[in-house]
Specification:
By secondary structure, the protein is α+β, with helices and mostly antiparallel strands. It has one domain: 2-Layer Sandwich (RNA Cap, Translation Initiation Factor Eif4e), CATH 3.30.760.10. Helices cover about 30% and strands about 20% of the residues. It has nine helices and eight strands. The chain has helices spanning about 30-35, 45-60, 65-70, 90-95, 140-155, 190-200, 215-220, 235-240, 265-270, and strands at about 5-20, 80-90, 110-115, 130-135, 165-170, 175-180, 210-215, 230. An eight-stranded antiparallel β-sheet has the order 2-1-3-5-6-4-7-8. Residues about 30-70, about 245-255 and about 260-280 have low confidence and may be disordered.
Length: about 280
Amino acid sequence: MTSGTTRLQNGYCFFYHRRGKHSNKSQPPSTEATHSAANIGKSSSPESSSSNNNTQSEESPTISNNKESTSAPPTYESSINVVRTVNTVEDFWGTYDYLVRPNDLPNPTDYHFFREGIKPTWEDPGNSRGGKWIVRVRKGLASRYWEETLLALIGGQFPDEGEICGAVVSIRYSEDIVSIWNKSSDDRQVTERIRDAMKKILHLPNSVHMEYKPHQASLMDKSSFRNTTVWKSKMSERENSSSSGHSGVDRSSSNTGPPRRSNSWGEREKGKRDIDRSWR
């Protein structure tokens, strides 16, 4: 590490995954500046560079002239692209600032941000006994919530930090989803502390229904977001009880969401989003 750099407590890796028929030839959405950003600091962090290159060569899809190979559908793991491994604050911003904003990604697409050495798959040894907390947000809000989540991860704002595997933002047609993956789905106290921290970091209102799903359950039903366990706060249940029989209630009116950071994605985007949240 060269002078003037600030090392992160843990190394993390950015991944990009374009789902569907484009998944076997997807590349991280970027400009020429993004490719330049991906090379920043390689000479000053050889270990990070070597790790990133090795992972990319193992996971990036390959194109073959063999007709049999090209006709076979790509595996999930082979369709995940490594963007860059970051070990310093400067590495992080050099990559993060040049990536396309989640709000501008095509459907369906995922960004993954995982602790170095852990792949964003259910079967990875770091994830296999764990699960994830899920928050569904309406379209146009993913960029802000993704930013807050990443900064909380690199800033060590989650309790039981050793339990955190990474985070995912999933861009879908009717909604977007932000999730936090942890290592131990059977430790209720740990999962509840992570849930409460996520709720606090993202300034989620009491009306939000968070969901949890163990990865073993995902392996069984081959689904990330179906058949989840829905958690509702006691205050939310009281509010729902008192408002039963009424329709069209705007549950977002009292929530302003995370505070905007100066020059953050929320500031830079050109009026695409409301300040208030609207939740499912």
